[in-house]
Specification:
Three copies of one chain form a homotrimer.
Chain A (H helix, E strand, L loop, with lengths): L1 E11 L3 E4 L1 H11 L4 E7 L4 E7 L3 H14 L16 H10 L3 E7 L2 E2 L5 E7 L5 E11 L1
Antiparallel strand pairs in A: 1-8, 2-7, 3-5, 3-8, 4-7, 5-6
């Protein structure tokens, strides 16, 4: 039994879903785990993680629109405004999605389903530098 | 330290919460872990996982109604429609709940609270075959 | 490779976010893990976990208000009422946030970002005794 860690750095341009499946799958393959547990961790409170369909890009558009609708950018609704009008909705959208994901590894691969992609969900409007920590434990 | 993996296959009939606690508890007992970490992983993007009260079935009715209300089946709201009118709401309800759960194992049992049950939350209307991957690591 | 477990007991007074970062960080330091995986697990269905900004307390106020708004205490909306009018909204707010968190440990510390705090999110109005199980595995 052994473990391994890596930090992915993602430069985001604006709000939206950025697929990071390939980076993660490559790292698991390179680290040569046959079976184990993969953890994906986002070190931020205004960006989050999501496992979602990566076949039809319309799904990403609808997800983006949905979260903009249920946690709207509207300064009148929030007390917290010092970091800009997009910051509090970003915290709420993060709270409603994931900061960490746990995915078993089997036969050398994370057991993602056929249509599952791993996304970084950027909630801020301006560019940000995001750190995603990967951890694997197993054989 | 050792690890073990198993895939549960669940045939769903329609939308709703399906309790899978017993299947999971049995597997942990059979694998004979004294202490460790259990991961439950759903390989789908239109069904999800939830830990919720398993005492009063009304809780499940209210949860079902709530998610139907906040992510309604209404084609006019979504761009993605090719897989049927229930597919995009299914993706959103999945995004708002869980794809993976992590539960410590202590004294041979997952440390579920007294009222906690583990549910597969099916979001599609028609029957589906769902795969839930279980992983345990520990002693 | 080794593992360790601990139960934190938190006495809550009423609804709101209670920061438990310090208790968790202290436990990880005391257990002396250099690298590994930390799991935080909440044994309840009307209280949950959240990683959020711990700089400006206004963020906590806005999060509290937001969840009160999207899952309001309004008996007319819910079938489940036997445990009081605040119970069903508590279950929904739990479903929308987290029951478990997974955080890698690197160089002796959980890899929390600069602004990330770990919160117990109490959703019931009256005082409750909450159990949070911590589990670490690693070297």
């Amino acid at each position: 039994m052994r473990q391994s860690t890596h930090t992915l750095t993602i430069e985001t341009k604006t709000r939206g879903l950025i697929e990071i499946t390939r980076d993660i799958v490559h790292w698991v393959a390179k680290e040569n785990f046959r079976s184990g547990l993969l953890t994906v961790y986002c070190r931020h409170t205004s960006a989050s993680l999501l496992i979602q369909e990566n076949a039809d890009p319309d799904v990403q558009t609808d997800l983006q629109n949905y979260f903009e609708e249920i946690a709207p950018e509207d300064p009148d609704r929030y007390v917290h405004g010092v970091e800009g009008p997009d910051d509090m909705p970003a915290h709420i959208r993060t709270a409603l999605t994931q900061t960490s994901l746990s995915i078993p590894i089997l036969e050398g691969k994370a057991v993602l389903g056929t249509w599952q992609g791993i996304y970084l969900f950027e909630h801020r409007t301006r560019p940000h530098r995001r750190e995603i920590v990967l951890h694997a434990i197993g054989d």
